[in-house]
Design goal:
255 residues; SDR family oxidoreductase; NAD(P)-bd_dom_sf; Sc_DH/Rdtase_CS; 8 helices; binds NADP nicotinamide-adenine-dinucleotide phosphate; 15% strand; Rossmann fold; SDR_fam
Length: 255
């Protein structure tokens, strides 16, 4: 009996935003391990190159590309480059997001509001539009949006961030419904509290962490690598009949 090929990504081209560290790095490394050529992206090229070098040193295929997903011209440029270099895109993981202000919702600063919307909503949306056009030309693909449990149950003092994550869950359904006819699937991952730089204000503060753990049935935070398996499932043929879902990977928080 031979092993399943359902999770193989040989010959696939995958783009992962926010892949220089944290959850995105773990996703990029697992997709490459399964055979994909991974375009490792974030704002700063140096961190991406470091991850791409680690992938190639381990025998995988990777390219580092800088792209600020809050800047429309950078999104256009990056997709022009993908088209020229690879001529196709099979997997897009929208993972890079921002959360610049922790405060009561009544104290929301207009600049922080705008930045959060530009990156977390407009960025995910137009990255998906550009990727979708390329995928349509090649008969299909898989888009995975890293949303958050906050998109279902808002985090305290994370008002506008939580609003954008709810929008990402709805955006996922929009692309799933309208792009299914092109062979494109679109699904969301909803991570729970994960030990990254992004969550360090929560994870590294003993009092906050203790309080958070009371709400997590598994009684621990996640390691970034624990998000990657779910993304591999959504990226690969193993999920060929799955589209429009929001998959909680949260230690039971939302249950
Ligand atoms: N950690 C958690 O507890 C948690 C929970 C729920 C959901 N999430 C979600 O998981 C995703 C990844 O978060 P993480 O915890 O892995 O964060 P992280 O460790 O801080 O990594 C963030 C990544 O995004 C990049 N980035 C930030 N702003 C960007 C922009 N405007 N354009 C392009 N790249 C950008 C960063 O690199 P540069 O600085 O080089 O740009 C970095 O590679 C986010 O969507 C977040 O909302 C995280």
């Amino acid at each position: 009996m031979s092993k399943t090929q359902l999770f193989d990504l040989d010959g696939k081209i995958a783009f992962v935003s926010g892949a220089s560290r944290g959850i995105g790095e773990a996703i990029a490394k697992l997709l490459a391990q399964q055979g994909a050529h991974v375009i490792v992206s974030s704002r700063k090229l140096e961190g991406c190159q470091h991850v791409a070098d680690a992938i190639t040193a381990a025998g995988g295929k990777a390219t580092a590309v800088a792209c600020h997903i809050g800047e429309m011209d950078q999104i256009s440029q990056v997709f022009a480059g993908i088209k020229e270099q690879f001529g196709r895109l099979d997997i897009l993981v929208n993972n890079a997001a921002t959360n610049p202000q922790f405060c009561n919702v009544l104290d929301t600063d207009l600049g922080a509001f705008q930045k959060t919307v530009d990156v977390n909503i407009r960025g995910y949306f137009f990255m998906s539009v550009e990727a979708g056009k390329l995928m349509r030309e090649n008969g299909g693909g898989s888009i995975i949006n890293v949303a958050s449990i906050n998109g279902i149950s808002p985090g305290i003092f994370q008002g506008i961030y939580s609003v954008t994550k709810a929008a990402v869950i709805n955006m996922t359904k929009v692309f799933a419904k309208e792009c299914a006819q092109f062979g494109i699937r679109c699904n969301a991952l909803l991570p729970g509290l994960t030990d990254t730089k992004f969550a360090s204000a929560l994870v590294k503060n003993d009092a906050i962490l203790k309080q958070a753990l009371t709400q997590i049935p598994l009684k621990r935070v996640a390691d970034p690598s624990e998000m990657a398996g779910a993304v591999l499932y959504l990226a690969s043929d193993a999920s060929s009949y799955t589209t429009g879902v929001a998959l909680n990977v949260d230690g039971g928080f939302l249950s």
